[in-house]
Amino acid sequence: QVQLVESGGGLVQAGGSLRLSCAASGRTFSRYAMGWFRQAPGKEREFVAAITWSGGTIYYEDSAKARFTIFRDNAKNTVYLQMNSLKPEDTAVYYCAADLSAPYKNYASSTEKQYDTWGQGTQVTVSS
User: Of 16, 95, 115, 121, which has the fewest beta carbons less than 10 angstroms from its beta carbon?
Assistant: First the structure.
């Protein structure tokens, strides 16, 4: 029902910025919450940020708000993750996901199992 494709990853120096994009197919994109997760080598996947259909956002920690911003452009069926002041610890494969359990949720989830559809991921590498 929904297909997600991430892009925008790459190699950056510490302190640099990247904007990740997640393009979604389907007209129902605007109805659902979207999330970003990441997985570093040898580590489990972790939550980064999520956004509701109406634009409400949550982040993995309060301090992340200073560096990461999740936003969406429903006209383009795309959700973004703007990452600034990148650190080597941000190095990971970043995945976007869609929560299709119900439309128009007033909240977003930080748990992996809540999401139904996942992209293939895009590599982000931050050098020191």
Answer: 16
Look up residue 90 and give its two tokens.
Answer: 């941000």
Cβ-contact 80, 4 below 8 angstroms: no
SS3 labels along 41-95: CCCCCEEEEEECCCCCEEECCHHHHHCEEEEEEHHHCEEEEEECCCCHHHCEEEE
Q: Which two tokens stand for residue 59?
A: 């982040």
Residue 113, CA atoms < 13 Å, CB-side half-sphere: 0
In the three-class reduction of DSSP (H, G, I as helix; E, B as strand; rest coil), residue 7 is classed as: strand
The one-letter amino acid code at 46 reads E
